[in-house]
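S.,

Sequence below, as promised.
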Amino acid sequence: MRHIFRTALLAAVGLALGSGAPQARIGDCSVDAMLVFDGSTSMAEISFETGPNTRIKEARQAIRQAMPDIAPYRRVGLMVYGPGPNGACENVDLRFGPIADSAGPVIDAVDALRPDGLTPLTDAVQRAAETLDFRNSAGVVVLVTDGNETCGGRPCELAQTLRATARDLTVHVIGFRAEVDFFAWNNPEQDPQNATTVARCLADETGGLFVTTETVKELVAALQRTLGCPVIG
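The prediction came back faster than expected:
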């Protein structure tokens, strides 16, 4: 299955250089963004697939490298899902809305994260869109996830709603060492014929990028491409 995920990455091989990437609306730096970060239990798992480092360890490295280049030019907020005092599917935490110079706060929040819980990514993306006042203002949501919805949410249904009701909202989806559980009972939209995360439709419906990443370098490039600002001239 891993080689299938990497097929999508080849389509985005121009992330760092800006060539060969899928055509998508990246947006200018005046548009506020929300980073939705996966803090579910699987981010801390060690397996043959993850190697000696957990996903969360390498994701922290990528955030530390990417955010200092992003924050000076775009206001960014942070939404985290997974860990918390509530039920496994009920911890969607708005850490802060879009702020200037967000590198430090984002890095500190991700460094302090202790993965737990499941993956209510649909709820998290919806709340991020609401934080951006998506019906009245343009905005960008960047979802970083290692898997698919596992809390009964319907990301494709949400994507269609956002497309129909948002003023100008783009959702980018970055899969980081993504795994798909085709037998998840609480993922009603999962299609066994689709060998990628079900959250891809969030990007497809809103004109965003869908990128799979396997390494720190690839995740840094994807974050810079989706949250950063295009260099013109």
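Residues 1-26 have pLDDT under 50 and may be disordered.

Coffee later?
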